[in-house]
Amino acid sequence: MSVAKLVYAVFILHLFNSFLYSCSSNDLSQIPKNFLTLAKREDFFNWMVGIRRRIHEHPELGYEEVETSKLVRTELGKMGVSYKYPVAVTGVIGYIGTGHAPFVALRADMDALPIQEMVEWEHKSKIPGKMHACGHDAHTTMLLGAAKLLKEHQEELQGTVVLVFQPAEEGGAGAKKIVEAGVLEKVDAIFGLHVSNLLGLGQLSSREGLLMAGSGRFKAKISGRGGHAALPQFAIDPVLAASNVIQSLQQLVSREADPLDSQVVTVAKFEGSDAFNVIPDSVTIGGTFRALSPRGLEQLKIRIEQVITTQASVSMCNATVDFLEDVNPPFPPTVNDKDLHLFYESISVDMLGTENYFETLPVMVSEDFSFYQEAMPGHFSFLGMQDKTHSPMANPHSPFFEVNEESLPYGASLLASLATRHLLESSSSPNKSNMKDEL
Ligand SMILES: *[C@@H]1O[C@H](CO)[C@@H](O)[C@H](O)[C@H]1NC(C)=O
Ligand SMILES: *[C@@H]1O[C@H](CO)[C@@H](O)[C@H](O)[C@H]1NC(C)=O
Ligand SMILES: [Zn+2]
Ligand SMILES: [Zn+2]
Model-level pTM? Predict the structure, then answer.
């Protein structure tokens, strides 16, 4: 923030003399701590825990978040928050504040995974084969928590907070559908977070620029000629062909990628014959590929197709490759806006101190949050959950994954602080020509 902005902001504070920033020195830097105190109140915490457990017991997969979406709308309704629904099938877009520019968006994902929960506890998933194993139940709850905090301090908002409850992050690119729905066109900045089992409770981590890889999926059918397993000379064996294909695919990263420009190719699916003594007609393989740049992703995609088809032909098989882009659009890399990152760091330090903010290296997991960042400046970060009673914690997508509910107040207050401060700092900018725009 420039000195001019700071002076203006302090001037605003004297005008409002509000709760959020009157607690100590009439200082914007108090907002995050004050929100955290509010979110840790016993009644507020218990309310969030109750919501998170209800969502956890009823996990729903991408674009099927019917009950979760209904719960979100019911809670927003109780708070008196207006919303748009349906957006992107099951998505909900809420609005708090003046209804005018500037606009800042906060995002949570609502979908679960096709995993059978293995954690035995009172609020275990009641849906066989489905589980909130990535913490999206916590993200949805944190955004509802932020909504409640923001609504309670609505008159202090210098603009409008747009709440994005999106479907289908785990494939299906719900974020892309939200962007395409056109509901975020006037948004100046969007923030999102993910719970992390690797960071301590109340610790935050992120970085400027590249944070997470881009990713795509592929599926290939390798066709030969089936036959008796004892008479290979009369068959064309697609199992061996597929095995050679997988070996060759592993050379793309080791031999063709720049060792300093990380990439991943994993074959995770292999479907052949059901019998021990039958060579199948065909084998289907499938997997994922990751890269840190759009160019790296495109290059991998071209080579994956070439390697599969030509290597299959070495074994006299034919192969077709499908990148499944209609159903699962490839995710671009997640890249944090530079100015938003500086802003984020100042909020995290104001809330939790410099000792609780950690700069991370980029990671090869991916996030469909990147679709927002293609359309507007965006920032994504990780929020720690580990404490003495919860460590070590299982990784996301594990059937043993657990959320430490003590993290809920941190997430809610971080999101509320990012939105409130972003609006205060952008509305204090001298350029107010678009202040009267309605969303
Ligand atoms: C591969 O495709 C060619 C051309 O369509 C066909 O002649 C051949 O029989 C196919 N081979 C196998 C093993 O399916
Ligand atoms: C002020 O905002 C208007 C409208 O968004 C934009 O066209 C203009 O470039 C901005 N001016 C400055 C100095 O940022
Ligand atoms: Zn996930
Ligand atoms: Zn996730």
Answer: 0.86
